[in-house]
Amino acid sequence: MVSLKLASTDKEREDAFAVRRTVFVEEQGVPLHIELDEGDETAVHFIAYDGDRPIAAGRIREIGEGTGKVERVCVLPEYRGQRLGQRMMVMLEDHAREAGLSTIRLNAQSHAQDFYTKIGYSVTSPEFLDAGIPHRAMEKSLVPMENSTHAATDE
User: Above 60 in pLDDT, residue 153?
Assistant: First the structure.
């Protein structure tokens, strides 16, 4: 059974880092010193498990003026296509609402742009390279928690 949760222990954060290493470093060739960065110290991390196996991760940082930045959202290859990315984004957005944030920004890998567009994000930049991978900046205004159609659902 798949479960998603706040990574509140050192082990859970290490599990999130392990998923990120698999996806970004091993699969996509991002250097480890770029993938694991100073943002990890201040970010709130989330992790998904299939039983005891870590399978997806994501993080969010507050960057000021009611804005959060979602980063490092990833799902292991064999678990893609099961809506885990969407479920992770719902958790990240709900956390942002609870923290009083009104806007989320992210830098989406260009191949994932359609995924983010379908869940309400708009492109805010031309394509650029980050760690040698094409990206686009995207943004979404958050609906307050009491008005959210995703709040407290497991979609």
Answer: no
**C-alpha Rg value of the chain to the nearest Å:** 15
User: Is pLDDT above 50 for 154?
Assistant: no
CA-to-CA separations, 3 to 19, 52, 125, 132, 141, in angstroms, rounded = 15, 10, 34, 32, 26
Q: Where are the domains of the chain?
A: 2-147
Using CA atoms, how far apart are residues 104 and 93, in angstroms rounded to an integer? 8
In order, the DSSP letters of 29-41 are: ---HHHHS-THHH
pTM for the model stands at 0.89
Q: Return the CATH architecture of domain 2-147.
A: 3-Layer(aba) Sandwich (3.40)
* Cβ(108)–Cβ(73) below 8 Å: no
Look at the block and give the residue holding tokens 């490092």. Answer: 72
